[in-house]
Write a structure and sequence with these properties.
single chain; mainly beta; 5-stranded antiparallel β-sheet; 49% strand
Amino acid sequence: RLATHRDAPDGSLIAVWPTADGIYFNRLTVNGPEFPNGQKIPGSDNGTEPQVVMAANEETTVIWKVRLGGTLANRAIGRVWGAAESIAGGSPNARLVGDSLGNALMVWSGDGKVFATRFIRGSGWQPRQEIGTDLVQQGVADVAMDDNGRALVVWEQVITSTPDPL
């Protein structure tokens, strides 16, 4: 996966990818990659299916599925990664978006509902919120967010033509 921001210095972008021992990243600029073989994101052991967003100041948020279940996240400010954090109630079908300031939003569906949690710069990950119910199709919700943190989430809803006997 790749992420950049239109205001990132030097047109830089970040690439993340899974390996057998975790999630790796590399920052790419017009001068090429920062690390010859990439660097492992701290706490990403057993990680797979990463997603990444980058803010205008190059703050980076990465989420990934844990092979044994759950979702973890880590953030880099400049070139320094923090500690990996578990996202309460996260799901492998999560989607991640970010804004120019370094805030992020993760959405996912499960058990017929759609959930969201925000990362607010300076405050961290917020508690999850249920944002949709009523026969949500299992699978992936999708999300977009503007530079002011306003988001739009869409998902598939199951509609049946027969009355529900219950």
